[in-house]
Write a structure and sequence with these properties.
With about 325 residues, the chain is an alpha/beta fold. It has eleven helices and eleven strands.
Length: about 325
């Protein structure tokens, strides 16, 4: 599965790694982890990473992005990670590269790169990157392993989601043999300041129900600005407050921003990915997202979600 991308990596002296915008732990873990793997395995090559950043994951060693000029893409290989659609890629200059490749675990939406490696059997892109390193005999340092393990636990919900498989634990075991501090990961990810705990409580009080089985939160731009929290925290960080409500099988978090209405859709029972794709988004069968044009479009998506739960066939 990895032969073509490994050949491309060997052929280029400069490699620039991209991933999706508004990055989560899996996107950053995969990007940073792959950067470590390639630097350690091919020390003569220049390995760079670009994109917006989330302060939540600044604890990962090597989290600072590189300053990359347009000219750096000349004669370079660009690798895009954890991204199902072109519109979601952070920094569209990957198109300037001599060759492009993608490694992703989302449901296929469209061709993005010259070389495509996609496999939805992995719970995370980090798991797929680790499998790539294992299969190709590449060097995985403790720093690389910690970054990749971070993405595995965030995308699997601490190995709770049903995307977790025996394969997940085999790869996790391989990474843990590299001897890093798992407690440091959990402290940084899940020990929250009181400010965040209070914000979470405020969002619990914002939960509404389209039907008894479909919950949603809608946050206006004014409310988002007044909260003092970043958009990632409000959008992806708060969708989980609805995940354990008894009787709720699908839920969605809408957040107004300068770029449109950010939408995070989740379900414990249904494949909500086609709904996300209908509105220009994508992701997984039970966890997808999209950016919508307006509140009216958000309500239309909510109605589609209601229809899905009432008539899943």
């Amino acid at each position: 599965m990895f032969e073509k991308i490994l050949d491309a990596i060997k052929a280029y002296d400069r490699i620039i790694i991209h991933r999706h915008q508004n990055p989560d732990g899996d996107a950053l873990g995969a990007q940073i982890g792959l950067c470590h793997v390639l630097k350690d395995s091919f020390p003569q090559k220049e390995i760079l990473k670009v994109g917006d950043m989330s302060p939540r994951y600044a604890f990962i060693e090597g989290a600072v992005m590189d300053e990359v000029a347009d000219k750096d893409y000349e004669g370079a290989l660009a690798i895009i990670l954890d991204t199902s659609a072109k519109t979601l890629i952070s920094d569209d200059r990957y198109t300037l590269a001599d060759k492009t490749a993608r490694i992703d675990h989302h449901i296929y939406c469209e061709t993005i790169a010259d070389i495509e490696v996609t496999d939805t059997s992995y719970e995370s892109c980090c798991g797929l990157i680790a499998a790539f390193a294992m299969e190709c005999g590449l060097t995985v340092s403790s720093a690389a392993a910690k970054a990749l393990y971070t993405g595995m636990i965030t995308d699997s919900g601490r190995f709770r989601y049903d995307s977790t498989t025996a394969q997940t634990f085999r790869i996790a075991a391989f990474l843990m043999e590299r001897k890093f501090d798992t407690n440091d990961i959990y402290r940084n990810l899940y020990a929250d300041d009181f400010k965040f705990i209070r914000l979470r409580a405020q969002f619990v009080l914002k939960v509404q129900f389209a039907t008894p089985s479909v919950a949603y939160i809608y946050t206006t731009k004014e409310e988002a600005d007044a909260s003092g929290a970043d958009l990632f925290t409000i959008s992806r960080g708060m969708v989980g407050v609805m995940s354990d409500i008894r009787g709720v099988s699908a839920w969605v978090n809408f957040t107004e921003s300068d770029d449109g209405v950010l939408c995070e859709i989740r379900s414990s029972l249904y494949n909500i990915n086609p709904i996300a794709k209908k509105y220009g988004g994508g992701g997984h069968a039970k966890a997808s997202g999209a950016t919508l044009k307006s509140r009216d479009e958000a309500m239309a998506l909510l109605n589609d979600l209601v229809t899905l739960t009432e008539d899943p066939a």
